[in-house]
């Protein structure tokens, strides 16, 4: 195996161990030492791959975002060549929610990262950039859908983007078993049905 | 000061110190020792008030919920005797979001508690009960608003309740400065305008 790939794979397996620590043992245990134990490596071995706890956390977060993007990418492939913008947005929203194991792991990592951001300026800046980038992507889709006549021309793209993203608020209700997955899906679909009232005739 | 009041006040001041630790130093520091330091008490003194870290955390969370309920209660008083259900729901939503210092402290405490719930069954059960109770209250308001003709009779109360609560998803976007407070308020108002389309004529 080429050395570079091995390095990357090692970092990814440490990142996955970090996600497990977040979900199974708690943010209290997010130290290099505890993550090393979970990954089955020595403390020094993990330090070889990450110079600091912050670097390890940031990598684990970036890796979570990448994994989420990959899941969305696979879902997009299944939607075919000219997917309906409603289906694209639905896919993105669903993959951000803790509805199944993979999405749960990345969602929990995000929640932990946001809490770290509250008291760490570097992490805050990084988390902000990443979330703002995701928000831009959604706004672009919303603007295009308005232009193409899928969403009514009276809708404000900024407000609609923000309301769509706020639906990630289901996360807490899912994690605490207060709203069931099928109810969340029903609510998301109801919401999208009300937003996508046009037939995509180019808004002519 | 009567002893009981003093006991309660002491516990509240420790809870506030715990909130500060969450916001300013991070969940990693949520130990009895660190909270005692932040509160300016000895470790033993805090142990006198809380038998365990879990008890301290749960009290700090209950206190956060109480404080939020009190803020909502004060807001309700300002709304007068027969408030419009739209205003009541708006008030409840706004107070759950980290839009100003007090609400930020309780919101951060909630976020930390949810992460603790992931790996602690007792905390999970407690957090679930509290959130489910809040959800019931909102559902009751929504059902009444449908019955009174403020919300269209075609709306499903369960789905509408869930969608309203999902708006707490703005929390992350506010904490990371990705969506500005005025944009959040605009989106919430837009959302409520679309929900409250009736004039409260009793649905007749």
UniProtKB/TrEMBL annotation, chains A, B:
<feature type="domain" description="HTH tetR-type">
    <location>
        <begin position="8"/>
        <end position="68"/>
    </location>
</feature>
<keyword id="KW-0805">Transcription regulation</keyword>
<dbReference type="InterPro" id="IPR009057">
    <property type="entry name" value="Homeodomain-like_sf"/>
</dbReference>
<dbReference type="InterPro" id="IPR001647">
    <property type="entry name" value="HTH_TetR"/>
</dbReference>
<dbReference type="Pfam" id="PF13977">
    <property type="entry name" value="TetR_C_6"/>
</dbReference>
<keyword id="KW-0804">Transcription</keyword>
<dbReference type="Pfam" id="PF00440">
    <property type="entry name" value="TetR_N"/>
</dbReference>
<dbReference type="InterPro" id="IPR036271">
    <property type="entry name" value="Tet_transcr_reg_TetR-rel_C_sf"/>
</dbReference>
<dbReference type="InterPro" id="IPR050109">
    <property type="entry name" value="HTH-type_TetR-like_transc_reg"/>
</dbReference>
<dbReference type="InterPro" id="IPR039538">
    <property type="entry name" value="BetI_C"/>
</dbReference>
<keyword id="KW-0238">DNA-binding</keyword>
<feature type="DNA-binding region" description="H-T-H motif">
    <location>
        <begin position="31"/>
        <end position="50"/>
    </location>
</feature>
<protein>
    <submittedName>
        <fullName>TetR/AcrR family transcriptional regulator</fullName>
    </submittedName>
</protein>
<keyword id="KW-0678">Repressor</keyword>
């Amino acid at each position: 195996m080429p050395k570079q790939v091995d390095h990357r794979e090692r970092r990814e397996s440490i990142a996955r161990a970090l996600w497990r620590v977040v979900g199974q043992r708690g943010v209290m245990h997010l130290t290099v030492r505890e993550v090393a134990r979970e990954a089955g490596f020595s403390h020094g071995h993990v330090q070889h791959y990450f110079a600091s706890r912050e670097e390890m956390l940031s990598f684990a977060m970036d890796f979570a975002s990448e994994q989420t993007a990959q899941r969305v990418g696979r879902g997009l492939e299944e939607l075919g060549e000219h997917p309906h913008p409603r289906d694209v947005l639905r896919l993105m929203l669903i993959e951000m929610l803790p509805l199944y194991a993979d999405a749960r792991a990345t969602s929990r990592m995000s929640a932990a990262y946001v809490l770290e951001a509250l008291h760490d300026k570097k992490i805050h800046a990084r988390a902000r950039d990443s979330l703002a980038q995701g928000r831009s992507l959604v706004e672009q889709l919303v603007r295009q859908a308005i232009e193409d006549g899928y969403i009514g021309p009276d809708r404000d793209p900024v407000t609609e983007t923000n309301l769509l993203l706020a639906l990630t608020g289901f996360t807490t209700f899912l994690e605490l078993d207060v709203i069931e997955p099928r109810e969340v899906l029903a609510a998301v679909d109801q919401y999208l049905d009300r937003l996508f009232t046009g037939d995509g005739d180019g808004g002519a």
